[in-house]
Amino acid sequence: xxxxxxxxxxxxxxxxxxxxxxxxxxxxxxxxxxxxxxxxxxxxxxxxxxxxxxxxxxxxxxxxxxxxxxxxxxxxxxxxxxxxxxxxxxxxxxxxxxxxxxxxxxxxxxxxxxxxxxxxxxxxxxxxxxxxxxxxxxxxxxxxxxxxxxxxxxxxxxxxxxxxxxxxxxxxxxxxxxxxxxxxxxxxxxxxxxxxxxxxxxxxxxxxxxxxxxx
Length: 215
Description:
The protein has helices at 6-32, 40-68, 78-100, 105-114, 116-133, 137-143, 145-151, 153-168, 174-189, 191-214. It is mainly α and 215 residues long. It has one domain. It is globular and about 50 Å long.
């Protein structure tokens, strides 16, 4: 099988940047032309949220694709795609905070506590925030093996994200269900790592609980 050369990865990164710019331009044109339907605020929030999920799921798909087609250089795209997932998630949150809550951060906290789907969404955003910060090369080097353990939380962010989307829609659940199925397929592809992650997490929580009881 022909290996993808490094120059092709550079080209793919350029394409990712251009695609993101085109999506942003398309989003602007939807707003400017008034084609967001009867509830434009809701449509804006959902558009940004779905775009974030698209980038996140594509990020998760990179590892199984790279392994299946024996193209390890494709893994170099994960960082860029993951950062774009975080950027779109931030835009999703910012538009919700701006147009729904008028930048009332106290109200946001109250809503997050009161509404489970917002709790899941904010939890996913916080995980992506941590992953984005620790993607900085000097931080990654200092974290060493802990970096790989932390970045497995991207799977948790994906699960929280698709459930958040499913709970947030009042009708037309077919599309959210498609996202859930895609997420489950990707998790199945990485089942060995996923199971290992949760075993370690469960073990850590159990040990902590035993220590507390011992005290």
